[in-house]
Hints:
The chain is an all-beta fold. The chain has strands at residues 3-7, 10-13, 18-25, 34-40, 47-53, 59-61, 69-74, 79-84, 93-100, 122-123, 127-132. Strands 2, 4, 5, 6, 9, 10 and 11 form a seven-stranded mixed beta sheet that branches.
Amino acid sequence: xxxxxxxxxxxxxxxxxxxxxxxxxxxxxxxxxxxxxxxxxxxxxxxxxxxxxxxxxxxxxxxxxxxxxxxxxxxxxxxxxxxxxxxxxxxxxxxxxxxxxxxxxxxxxxxxxxxxxxxxxxxxxxxxxxxxx
Length: 133
């Protein structure tokens, strides 16, 4: 059974940090082109946050998180991480881990990751991040 399980969410004050983890089972990162994170705030559409390419480690970040968030992966553990620093109240959302064997990350020859907020092959159930002001 394919599973993506997120952890690490919680309540943090503005300016603080959190690290999200996404552990995959039932497949390996070598089986997919990309792994990454979307988020959905209350009353808003799901948006792409960051992704990492399984083939070459290239990463993409949404403009809103660039310079504050860092994505990384540990293929031996089949786990991807999102280090979130300098958190802002507008980062409050449910964060979803996602992976796909067709969608590319950080490759200008293919549609951008951010377009696939409702179309990825594998999804986690999400972890809530709340940033208080």
